[in-house]
Amino acid sequence: MTIIARKEGEKFETIKKTDFELEDKLQKLIVDDQIMKKIKLGFNEDTTLVTLSREFESGSGPMDVLAIDELGNVYIIETKLHGYADGRRKILAQIMDYAGAMWSGFKDFNIFEEKLLRHNSTSKHNQILSGKTLSQIISDSTLGFTDKEDVDDIITNMKANFSSGEFKFIVVFDELDSKLINTINYLNEKSPVTIYAVTYEYYTDNNMEILIPTIHGHAAEQRSTKKSSSRKPWTLEETKQNFEDKLSSHEYNMFKKLYQFLDENKDTMRTGVGVNGSIGPVFNKLCPNEWPRSFLTLDVGGNMLINYPWLKPEYRKKIAESFSENPELKMDKKSRSLSDIDLNSEYPKYGRDQWSNNVDSIIDTIKKFI
Q: In the 8-state DSSP scheme, what is residue 16?
């Protein structure tokens, strides 16, 4: 493609296409300038991508870029420029290896969060992300997220995607052969895998850089009927009905008792966008004023999460100590005492037996602080 442009009042000039000199430069543009969020992906044309890390170790080699969208879908992004000569089969095998390693290695989501924070704080490639927890990266408005999706919803959906091994893939090229386009279209329409190929034509002129993106695989995904697990917002009534349908009689009775207490005392009640839905009561007193979040998330799958990083610092240890007074709710991470646990990054999970058999204790703890 040739671009012909001019400044007002001057002659038209031809701007010629330029090759990326280094694959590293394209990776840096993805991370530092967030160029991926400027393009349209998937069913939702407002999909926004935000980088979590560059050169993050998957367990099967470092991924070029790891990103998420506003619904908590996880994207593995690889940049493959014209010098890449290993063939299309190796490209697809490589990204599948990454996904398999991520699914196997990070079933405990806390391990992923800890590794992400550590990697970004020590890697020369991630200086703009250094020292930030996952929730801080997501909630940082300078990275492009709006208030329409809550941080707790996004992380809850990320956890579900890690657990089920549902990842999306983006391979970025400067040019793409037709055989690989056919393969990507086939996978997107006929298999559970979602792969986008993005080509960027790169032009420079008088210190101006121009990138022209083209997306391959989008139309094939839209034709597919396999995307039944796509996220959607749930109404409160739909979510409550799902709890009744999914929980046992005892669990649902305990849910009703807990929900009544939460509903009577909350400032707002949030519902999630996961496959089955979730509830998250917000208590403004307990959360930072600039972004009040739900420190307790109960999902229809039966799990209760306590989101300590979303509490005001002065409440984290006190609430953890109060929960831990009940042996069945005690926070015990790898036999460490509570004083040794960093509550800035902990999201302990209680199974359905734990919370449903200890609703009175949970209510008593919350009562102490609201």
A: P
Q: Which residues pair with 280 in a beta bridge?
A: 270
For the entire predicted model, the pTM comes to 0.58
Mean pLDDT of 85-96: 73
Q: What is the mean pLDDT of the chain?
A: 79
CA distances from 328 to 108, 206, 309, 312, 365 (A): 20, 66, 22, 25, 14
**Whether the Cβ atoms of residue 162 and residue 106 lie closer than 8 Å to each other:** yes
pLDDT at position 149 is: 46
Hey, where are the domains in the chain?
3-223, 236-369
pLDDT at position 43 is 47
Q: What is the DSSP string of 84-97?
A: --S-HHHHHHHHHH
CB 265 within 8 Å of CB 147: no
**Structure token digits, residue 111:** 């391990």
The dihedrals phi and psi of 352, each to the nearest 5 degrees, come to: -60, -35
Compute the distance between CA of residue 30 and CA of residue 225 in angstroms, rounded to an integer: 31
Closest to 53 in 3D by CA, of 98, 91, 89, 85: 98
For 137, residues 6+ apart whose C-beta sits below 8 A from its C-beta are: 50, 52, 129, 143
Predicted local distance difference test score (pLDDT) of residue 228: 44
Instruction: Tell me the fold of 236-369.
Output: Aspartate Aminotransferase, domain 1 (3.90.1150)
Model confidence band, residue 46 (pLDDT cutoffs 50, 70, 90): low
The C-alpha torsion from 222 through 224 and 228 to 232, rounded to 10°, is: 0
R_g of the chain computed on alpha carbons: 23
CB 274 within 8 A of CB 157: yes
302-321 pLDDT, tens digit per residue, is: 889 888 888 899 999 999 99
Alpha-carbon gap, residue 104 to 98, rounded angstroms: 10
pLDDT at 204 over 70: yes
